Amino acid sequence: MRRLHVCSIQALSGEGRTKIMINLGKKHLLFIEPKGKVWETPVNDNLTRMMNWLLRKKATHGPYFKGWHTCACGVKSANYDLYLPDGTMTNSLAVHYLKHHRSEVPKRELVKLILLVSLIILKEKP
Ligand SMILES: [Zn+2]
Predict the structure, then answer these.
(1) 123 C-alpha vs ligand 1 centroid, how far in Å?
(2) How far is ligand 1, taken at its centre, from the CA of residue 69, in Å?
(3) pLDDT in tens, 83-105
(4) So what's the pLDDT on residue 92?
(5) pTM
(6) CA of 101 to the centre of ligand 1 (A)
(7) Residue 21: exposed, middle, or buried by beta-carbon count in 10 A (0-12, 13-18, 19+)?
(8) Phi/psi at 51 (nearest 5 deg)?
(9) Residue burial 8-20, b: 16+ Cβ < 10 Å; e: rest
(10) Domain residues of the chain, as ranges?
(11) What is the pLDDT of residues 12-49, one digit of tens each?
(12) How far is the CA of 16 from the centre of ligand 1 (A)?
């Protein structure tokens, strides 16, 4: 079952507001919107490292938007989405969510992360 949420983001131009979609579907990873305004104790475990590796080594970015997403704690995203080798879309706040909002990350997203990394590694090694 796909759950879809819509939230507002600030426009770079400061003129009005635009919207992005929060998506927990199988072709989206960590498109969530934590509600916590205060950062939790940072979690630097293998899941955080996996996501960091994915974004730094495997992701390409899509077209630039006129706005960005602002996390409840005030951290801003890049103004583009990121795409993983299998076409899954994620965002520049993915590591931030895992590190600082772990209690709000759905377990399904953690499983998707593990599966994606596993599939990428399997495809790279004979
Ligand atoms: Zn945050």
Answers:
(1) 33
(2) 10
(3) 999 999 999 999 999 999 999 99
(4) 95
(5) 0.79
(6) 6
(7) exposed
(8) -65, -40
(9) ebeeeeeeeeeeb
(10) 4-124
(11) 333 334 455 567 788 999 999 998 877 789 999 999 99
(12) 23
